[in-house]
Amino acid sequence: MAVDARPLWSCPRCGVKLLSRGLSHSCGRFSVARFLKGRDRRERALFGRFVTLVAACGPYHVAPAKTRVAFLVKVRFASVNRLGPGGMDVHFVLPRQLPSTRLRRIDRVGRLFVHHLRVFQPEELDAEVGAWLRESYRDYGERRWLRKGLPPAAVPPAGAGAARRTRGGPRRSGG
């Protein structure tokens, strides 16, 4: 499943891996098995397909919490937030806003964009989603977006319109 490829700090109480000591997290004995408990075959297939796409990005760590399972390299770049009969809700972080109607919502957090996607069938986790996850892994998970030389298009200019929480796709507020 996950590969320990980067030296991260591990919480002595719960074992979660973090970039450095003292970062906020849900401290508890959580597991992927507990998250998947009671899920049916389709729900497990959705989760498994998402994990396959994450694994194709490179070495990663799993950070299960009470209500979600996050995936990290140096920081959490993607997460399965909900899994049930109504589908699977995931999010991933990028330093740019994606222009796709497939996304349920986009939240702007400072210079970053949290992209939310709901899927119902494993086939929806396709090459396009895989490319988004690879970009999120590289640019946010490995923290490359903080390095000089990141393309200017990745960081919106000051005063640019912020993404708003929406249903049915992203919208931008006037700015």
Question: What does this molecule look like?
Answer:
- With 175 residues, the protein is α+β, with helices and mostly antiparallel strands.
- It has one domain.
- 20% of the residues lie in helices and 24% in strands.
- Strands 3-4-5-6-8-7 form a six-stranded antiparallel beta sheet.
- It is globular and about 40 Å long.
How far apart are the termini?
A: 44 Å
Q: Please give the number of β-strands.
A: 8
Rg measurement, Å: 16 Å
Shape, please?
globular
How big a fraction of the residues is strand? 15-25%
Structural class: alpha+beta
Query: How many strands, which pairing sense, and closed or not: the largest β-sheet?
Result: 6 strands, antiparallel
Low-confidence stretches: 1-6, 152-175
Q: List the helices and strands in order.
A: EEHHEEEEEEH
Question: What's the structural blueprint in terms of helices and strands?
Answer:
Layout: E1 9-10, E2 17-18, H1 32-36, H2 41-55, E3 61-64, E4 69-72, E5 76-84, E6 87-94, E7 105-109, E8 112-119, H3 127-141
Antiparallel strand pairs: 1-2, 3-4, 4-5, 5-6, 6-8, 7-8
Summarize this structure briefly:
The chain has 175 residues and is of the alpha+beta class. It has one domain.
List keywords for this structure.
alpha+beta, six-stranded antiparallel sheet, two-stranded antiparallel sheet, 8 strands, 20% helix, disordered N terminus
